[in-house]
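Re-running Inositol-1-monophosphatase to confirm reproducibility after the cluster update. Everything else is unchanged from the original entry.
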Amino acid sequence: MTDPLLSELLDLALEAARRAGALLRDGRPADLGVAATKSSPIDVVTEMDIRAEKLITGYLSEHRPTDGFLGEEGASAEGSSGIRWVIDPLDGTVNYLYGLPTWSVSIAAERDGERVVGVVEAPMRRETFHAVLGGGAYGNGDALKCRPTAPLNQALVATGFNYVTEVRTRQAAVARQLIPRLRDIRRGGSAAIELCDVAAGRLDGYYERGLHPWDVAAGDLIAREAGALTGGRPGRPADGDLTVAATPGVFEPLQALLEELGAWHD
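Result of re-run:
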């Protein structure tokens, strides 16, 4: 890496994610409680979620006090350096509550609005994924490459479901129509990890409606740097309506099928 700024940002993101992952893994109380609710009573914000975000923002602010922040649990600051950190301190909150291993810490850095660094730490899987714009994607230090192209009917595709019942019901209807046209569907519960699994060649594709910038900022960069294509509805970038990531041969037919099925609306 020839850009010293990107090298600095990557090192900081890796260390902040490692510390937050250790806090979440080792500090998870047996009587884990709920500090607040998000969009519905099922979608919870845990005490550990909030602690992890404070740890990350505190560490990054200590080293780069003029940077901005956008965090799931309320961290928001404009900054003056041109760098903004986009943070999901605990992606896969419900998995974490239930003691399932598929949860992660996601940290991305943007420079003048462009994502340049992404780190996803998955402590229970003992995996750390990272990417720098133009520098490739890595998992535990090994270079990542998405799977070779497969026909859509042989593609293994992951998705996720909203915690609002009405939205989730519509998403289930879309998935029901998709299943006969794919190899199969998976649902892991962490958007960041699903995107990294596309990068690592464990999935042919992934899509989800209703994601926020902190859900995908790091994972999107990691997937793209591993050779995957990412976007939203046809001709649009990934956004709250739809996020799609897939190998080059699967991306366009999957995106077109999702558009046909109305995966971006109720």
